[in-house]
Amino acid sequence: MTMQPLDTAAAESLLAFWSDAGVDACFGDAPVDRTHVAPPPAVKAVAKATASVVASPDVADAASDARRLAAGAETLEALGQAVAQFEGCPLTGMGARQAVFGRGNPQGAVLVIGEAPGAEEDERGEPFVGQAGLMLDRMLKEAGLEGQAYLTNTVFWRPPGNRPPTAAEQASCAPFLERALALMKPKAVLLLGGAAAKAVLGTDESIMRLRGHWKEWRPAEGGGVTAPALPSFHPAFLLRTPMAKKAAWADMLALATRLGADG
């Protein structure tokens, strides 16, 4: 029997699809008694990780420092400068070239939040400037939202190997995002990808369940400012999984429709 060559790109795309769908385990060789009521290992792992983030004095201290720096910023430009001074995020010591905060219209109607800078963003110092960013710009333009968005991420330094940011890394940077919301007062927030949606909304639900459903972002440190938030697929996921583009485009149109209805 002749083995077919492995299509690495297709395999990676399929694995990424199932990962974003929330699948975190495969069938094993031995049967499992699924009538047992104990939480599955994945749930226990998430709970343990969440508890450690909340209890970690390092994360609490970093968030406190971030909150102090963010509070002193009266514009998004000043907030970006405060981010550049911040050393509390663990990612600052992991090889990133520079802080990558935001780009776009500070007076825009939409705050777009992704997960983390990639290689091109790390080099150029702006978020969403690679292939995924070009796709996002095209989608915003085609939806009639060109020039109406400000783009940022949940963390502002590139994670090693472009891995997703950890909960601790996101928690240390969260005060800057909350300050951005307070300063910008957007009419809507677009959350791109599971890492961003989970961090901002404080949920463990997968992006497959969250996308397309409007939520309310009410940050504790947002100065009383709230905004409707729409989770959707990250454009990097769309590059790997073209079949998801239709759903993402529907989300973009829903965003444009809501902004149009709000005037």
TrEMBL record:
Residues 101-253 form the Uracil-DNA glycosylase-like domain. InterPro entries: UDG_Type-4/5, Ura-DNA_glyco_family4, Uracil-DNA_glycosylase-like, Uracil-DNA_glycosylase-like_sf. It catalyses: Hydrolyzes single-stranded DNA or mismatched double-stranded DNA and polynucleotides, releasing free uracil. One of its GO terms (molecular function) is 4 iron, 4 sulfur cluster binding. This is Type-4 uracil-DNA glycosylase. Keywords: 4Fe-4S, DNA damage, DNA repair, Hydrolase, Iron, Iron-sulfur, Metal-binding, Nucleotidyltransferase, Transferase. GO terms for biological process: DNA repair. Its EC number is 3.2.2.27. Belongs to the uracil-DNA glycosylase (UDG) superfamily. Type 4 (UDGa) family.
